[in-house]
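quick one, two chains, predict together pls
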Amino acid sequence: MSLEFNNEQMTEFNRLVAHYPEGKQKSALLPVLHLAQDSFGGWLPTEAMDYVASLLQIQPIEVYEVATFYSMYNLKPVGKFVFEVCQTGPCMISGSDNIIAYIQKQLAIKPGETTKDGMFTLKLVECLGACGYAPMMQVGKIYREHLTKEKVDAIIVEYRMQIVALN
Amino acid sequence: MGVKLLLEKANVPGIRTYDVYRREGGYAAAEKALKEMSIEAIVEEVKKSGLRGRGGAGFPAGMKWSFIAKPEGVPRHLVCNADESEPGTFKDRYLMEFLPHLLLEGLLISSFALGSNDTYIYIRGEYAWVATILEEAIIEATKNGWLGKNILGTGFDCMIHVHRGAGAYICGEETALIESLEGKRGNPRIKPPFPAIQGLWMRPTVVNNVETLAAVVPIIKMGGEEYAKIGVGRSTGTKLISACGNINKPGVYEIDMTISVEDFIYSDEYCGGIANGKKLKACIPGGSSVPILPANLLLKTAKGETRYMNYESLSDGGFATGSMMGSGGFIVLDEDQCIVKNTLTLARFYRHESCGQCSPCREGTGWMEKILQKIELGKGESSDIDLLWDIQRKIEGNTICPLGDAAAWPVAAAIRHFRDEFEWHIQNRALSQTSNFGLQHYADPIHVPA
């Protein structure tokens, strides 16, 4: 895989950097890492971080220290769909333990693992700010809320169908 | 029905778009502020309103504004804190998702008052779709002349930028937020210097919460004095409460701070009572960091007076018998909930979110989680409770930022009010995961709906 932004991604990169004053382009690091992660298969290999460093004219270590600090950046490969299930207090008292156990059973993986077909990764996360709509999980850029076992089944089928449709 | 200043139009179809927002009277306050008012007059109205920071600390917003340094030739910045990450809190998300232009209008007026030509909204990374909504609203506002160069011919230039974080609770702390906005790890800075003197890129900066900045709109519209008449004492205006947990109607509610806690929980207009006909056991009234209260102390103060949903009443009794308004994240626990388990998930949260800079917090949060885990798994010893108490005391007040306090308080309050539940776990090891201490003697005088 060649780790460079294509034209469209480069336009987005330039748009992100333009938000900050001249000479303060490092400020764009977090948004640019989101762009890189979205562009390069859902995670940030070292090459991707080095590439971002070169674009922003900063040292690679400045990127590594940030990428390892924030929980949204994946530092190892993940499945096509990452189920990030909230397990903090308000979700826990609304039954997130059962949902987590059910997802583990349905996908036959433990938290932190990816299914053999590379489709799904299960990640346990802390509060996502959807406490009133618990239990919930984040998949990509959207929230799936008010989860029940039936809803989890339907969501898994929905994503499987998406992949079938793409092929 | 209480007074609604922020969410009054939330249900108007299409209010998310500029056209509908404008038709409903939107941007009139911005027009008034920019065209008819001086900078000093705007700051004066905000001071008179008594508006207190809605992010959790409750610091008077007008006073915060008046601290901003104005050195010659140095740009100043307003930063909107939309990093909403306090467990139990989801009010800012609601406001931004449904009323993006209300926030933009508040930001425009505030930017004008503070002299910020480039204003940033730091939004938590997970709210990706909300960031998109805000960006679309910014494009609309710019097209219609409310952002950009020479706004309304006043000579004032202002652009609002959306900056997505990437998953770190600590970035809700204002100096960590600034570090993060500069593209660094979210490690809080030592204060002083305060952001008002040296903040973003070492320039004078004011950081305010989403709800605080949105509240500037009604304040300008009605005047600070009128705004201050709503509410009670130093709890002026309205407050958004995000209610969650074991209640019938979780959601975001706007209250005028004169309502009692009991009415808020049991009336159909708000939480609608405890779900599944259960009894109320406990509540964390202001986001996960604030002390948990057992039902009896939640509904009435230690003096036996009715407790109300405002800053003063919720903190009546101090930490011994009271709690805090905090961020307005109202977490209700029913009789089936285990206090040890709940405290454990919160301790895990703070361990995960500690930035690691100060040893009491970095090490202490890990120890608290491990000990709570031990008790929850039925391996606790009676000395563990005192050990937990000792650790939390050594964290509180000994860190650069308030995350240490925020991690210590939930553990302290759980032990303070529910010590016998911890002891029960230790004495009944075999039962500790499968059954529950329940209400026991907290049941009286717990409210049972008629």
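The two ends of chain B are 22 Å apart (CA to CA).
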